[in-house]
Automatic annotation (TrEMBL):
The active site is at C87 (glycyl thioester intermediate). Keywords: ATP-binding, Nucleotide-binding, Transferase, Ubl conjugation pathway. It comes from the Eukaryota. CDD domains: UBCc_UBE2N. Belongs to the ubiquitin-conjugating enzyme family. Residues 3-149 form the UBC core domain. GO terms for molecular function: ATP binding; transferase activity. GO terms for biological process: protein ubiquitination. One of its GO terms (cellular component) is UBC13-MMS2 complex. It comes from Gryllus longicercus. The lineage of its organism: Eukaryota, Metazoa, Ecdysozoa, Arthropoda, Hexapoda. This is UBC core domain-containing protein.
């Protein structure tokens, strides 16, 4: 962690001490600008019960530029493409140095709760979402079952929740 800007150290420390419910973000042992992220599918969403792996990287000029974030776990979502790239305004033109890693993770979690087919990255998924939302939601649930049910990752989030409740 030596040699990192104070801002990154403080944000990392806060993420570790006060984790966001349903989200685990741990810096890589070899590169503290690279985070291994796990996001639980929000309750009431087609992604509920799923555990999604993401990677988050802080570029050299962070916080002047947004973190680079992408899904590693496959997901059926109009705002996330096959490569895991995310269409989210704060990761692009609405980024502000006032935002933090925590804000980004919460926004991604919110995007899972409220897909926006009017601003798609995966056009085929967005089209189905608009034409036949029930079928799109069924597809999202199927993909969640197929690709996002890693029990090891669930364990990490459960341990985190248990330690939260003890503090």
């Amino acid at each position: 962690m030596a040699g990192l800007p104070k801002r990154i150290l403080k944000e990392t420390q806060r993420l570790m001490q006060e984790p966001v419910p349903g989200i685990s973000a741990v810096p890589d042992e070899d590169n503290a600008r690279y985070f291994h992220v796990i996001v639980a599918g929000p309750e009431g969403s087609p992604f509920e019960g799923g555990i999604f792996r993401l990677e988050l990287f802080l570029p050299e000029d962070y916080p002047m530029s947004a973190p680079k974030v992408r899904f590693i776990t496959k997901i059926y979502h109009p705002n996330i493409d096959k490569l895991g790239r995310i269409c989210l305004d704060i990761l692009k033109d609405k980024w502000s140095p006032a935002l933090q890693i925590r804000t980004v993770l919460l926004s991604i979690q919110a995007l899972l709760s409220a897909p926006n087919p009017d601003d798609p990255l995966a056009n085929d998924v967005a089209e189905l979402w608009k034409i036949n939302e029930a079928q799109a939601i069924a597809n999202a649930r199927d993909w969640t079952r197929l690709y996002a049910s890693d029990s090891h990752d669930k364990l990490i989030l459960q341990e985190q929740a248990a330690s939260d409740s003890r503090h």
